[in-house]
Design a protein that fits this description.
Blueprint: H1 10-18, H2 24-42, E1 45-48, H3 50-63, E2 77-81, H4 108-115, E3 119-124, H5 158-165, E4 172-176, H6 182-188, E5 191-194, E6 221-226, H7 229-239, E7 266-269, H8 280-295, E8 299-302, H9 307-326, H10 331-344, H11 353-360, H12 364-384, E9 390-394, E10 410-412, E11 415-417, H13 419-423, H14 428-432, E12 437-444, E13 450-456, H15 462-474
Parallel strand pairs: 2-3, 2-4, 7-8, 7-9
Antiparallel strand pairs: 1-3, 4-6, 5-6, 5-12, 9-13, 10-11, 12-13
């Protein structure tokens, strides 16, 4: 079988499956052969689910051609982030204290994929406790970027993005609380969707720790990474199902319009925040995207974010993240987090230490004030969508950087940029405000590294974002596979 078949869109693989041109077992074995050859280089997949995957594929093949019993995915091989529980497999989140934690039941996400007929090949690499924009830790080897293995995949869905880009899976399901889908998608040249804030992250997901008592979660989303927009749509349709008993992901009509042609859209864009700006290579790629949209008749408006609003989003993100991370943690762990963030944000353009410490204090009054300020920040951002269908920006200052386990300032075009400034200013606001945002492949830097473009929308505009992403993909903004892995 020709290896490039593994880089075909999931939709194309499903067509071959339905037509009887390939069995799920054959396709699953092809993926495992590809994984065996390349995963030792990339360290993208860290939990092997081969025994169950082969059994599932064979069972689905026996049920075929009774397509109703095979689900909409008909035995399609996929992966999930290591942080999702998969019955009988470990969920460690690359943390020593959880090295022996074995899931006794499936997460909601794993269950939905199985119900849809997916074959789950395995679980993908993550940083310790998901708290980084690189993917490394004490339990798993460092994940490497398929376009340049000396560079990071991003995090925390870093292994998943690398697996998608290297043809090790049809698509991946990840999570995002600060850029954890979007930065890896950008760094690895794939599509990624961070949906409107939702609560499914708690349903069989770590964190929170197993048997944790605290139940507060905010700013977090579960979403797909894939090589085409059609596959983003397919994966999204499966994981985005209402959970009525928990009041999660209930149907909401956004009221936004799906325009038939690009020329009907109005787009706002920016390439700097007032605190940081994209690198020259990032700006060139972003401006090329804007120029292409302009050629197609899109109405384009450059605007500047309010700097005070932006500073407040960083402060509120840090405060709420402190409450989320600290609610089940002992005092000593919370002090260690303060020290880590103090080192991490040294020299940064925004100070997260005081608000993070406020969050880790577990003081209800501080919590209540943060929620009120958050409401005001959300209202301000949503008012900008009165003028634009979507807002376009960089995802990070530049492309994937060299492995940097000590999180030192990142060298980029002659500048040394503080670690958080490089990675988070363009992504965090959409976590604070809960807005969906889509990453599309924008192009390649002079070093041949992918650079993604972020397209943000108003709440519950995922369907409209996906439609726009398809139109953009049609004019040339596509995934281009890393040549070493095809």
């Amino acid at each position: 079988m020709d290896k490039p078949i593994l880089f075909l869109p999931a939709k194309a693989l499903l067509s071959k499956r339905v037509a009887g041109e390939i069995t799920s077992t054959e396709l699953t074995n092809e993926y495992y052969a590809h994984i065996k050859k390349h995963n030792k280089i990339l360290n993208a997949i860290v939990i092997d689910n081969k025994r169950e995957a082969i059994e599932t594929a064979r069972r689905l093949d026996l049920a075929f051609p009774d397509k109703g019993s095979c689900g909409v995915l008909h035995g399609l091989p996929v992966t999930i982030k290591e942080s999702f529980n998969l019955k009988g497999q470990k969920t460690t989140v690359n943390f020593k204290m959880l090295r022996d934690n074995v899931a006794t039941e499936d997460s909601v996400i794993a269950g939905r994929l199985k119900e849809a007929g997916a074959v789950i090949l395995g679980k993908t690499n993550v940083p310790t406790l998901l708290y980084d924009n690189q993917t490394f830790g004490p339990l798993y080897p460092t994940a490497r970027n398929p376009y340049d293995t000396s560079r990071t995949t991003g995090g925390s869905t870093g292994g998943g993005a690398a697996a998608v880009a290297a043809g090790m899976t049809a698509f991946e399901i990840g999570t995002d609380i600060g850029g954890s889908i979007r930065n890896p998608a950008s760094f690895c040249g794939v599509f990624g969707l961070k949906p409107t804030e939702n609560q499914f992250i708690q349903s069989g997901h770590v964190p929170p720790f197993p048997d944790a008592k605290g139940g507060f979660i905010a700013m977090a989303s579960v979403g797909p990474l894939a090589r085409t927009m059609a596959d983003i749509e397919l994966a999204w349709s499966i994981i985005n199902q209402p959970e009525w008993k928990y009041l999660n992901s209930l149907p909401v009509v956004s009221g936004r319009i799906k325009h038939d042609v690009l020329s009907a859209y109005k787009i706002g864009w920016f390439d700097e925040t007032g605190l940081v700006e994209g690198s020259e290579s990032t700006k060139i790629i972003l401006h090329g995207f804007i120029d292409k949209l302009t050629e197609k008749g899109v109405k384009i408006y450059k605007f500047k974010l309010d700097e005070q609003w932006l500073r407040q989003t960083f402060e509120i993100w840090s405060t709420l993240f402190g409450f989320i991370a600290g609610q089940n943690a002992p005092w000593l762990f919370r002090q260690a987090m303060k020290l880590k963030f103090r080192r991490l944000t040294k020299g940064s353009s925004f100070n997260a230490i005081k608000p993070l410490s406020n969050g880790l204090s577990m003081d209800f009054k501080i919590f209540s004030i943060a929620l009120r300020i958050r409401q005001e920040l959300i209202a301000q951002l949503m008012s900008w969508f009165d003028d634009y269908d979507f807002i376009v920006s960089p995802t990070s200052i530049g492309p994937a950087f060299e492995h940097n386990p000590k999180q030192k300032p990142i060298k980029c075009e002659g500048r040394a940029i503080p670690y958080p400034d490089y990675n988070f200013p363009f992504t965090l606001p959409y976590n604070v405000c809960g807005n969906p945002s889509l990453i599309i492949p924008g192009g390649f830097s002079n070093e041949g590294l992918p650079v993604g473009i972020q397209i943000a929308g108003p709440h519950y505009s995922e369907n409209e974002l996906i439609h726009f992403g398809k139109l953009v993909e049609d004019i040339g903004f596509k995934f281009e596979p890393p040549k070493k892995f095809v």
